[in-house]
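Q: What would this chain look like folded?
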Amino acid sequence: MKLFVAPRAPNPRRVLIFLAEKGIDSIELVNLDLNAGEHRGDAFRAKSPLARVPLLELDDGRALGETRAICTYFEGLQPEPNLMGKDFEERAFIEMADRRCELYLGAYFANAIRHTHPGLATLEQPQFADFGRSQGEKALDVARWLDSVLAAQPYVAGARFTIADITAFCLLEFARGLLKFKPGDQGLAQLQAWRDRIAERPSAKVL
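A: My prediction, written as structure tokens:
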């Protein structure tokens, strides 16, 4: 199998951390340079029509896109350690937490970065700075919610480490790198402490 990724992009990193937590190290990695537009080339578009990474190319030639779908595939391939739920009820609550991080925290941060950071101008044209700043404020609201969640429980989805923690961590790190966002600077002590704890996991050092 081949996994197409892009250095420093948050969604590929989510899959790489997921694989590291699983102890899966036999997947061939193919790095694409997004700034150079390698993901928009005909060869990659034949596998990923929407030109998105990550993308998993299976041994039979089929292409599996979307971060969570790829993680679901590996969870089924190697169920332990479990990261997505032991039964239908736990899976539902983990997915809820994971999707909230992805769809709200992630989308707001992504829009803020893509529309305000000059380094992203090659990927986002035109940029709308006012829109980007407003999205950053919405991301901060979601971060405040996540801080309150972590005040009541040790991990994003409950009592144990799951895919939801991977998603939230990668999104916060993406914002830390490009927006200089640090939860502690915003008075979000629980979120900062959680981030620092997750950063110490061996999987978090995978790039």
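The first helix runs from residue 10 to 22.
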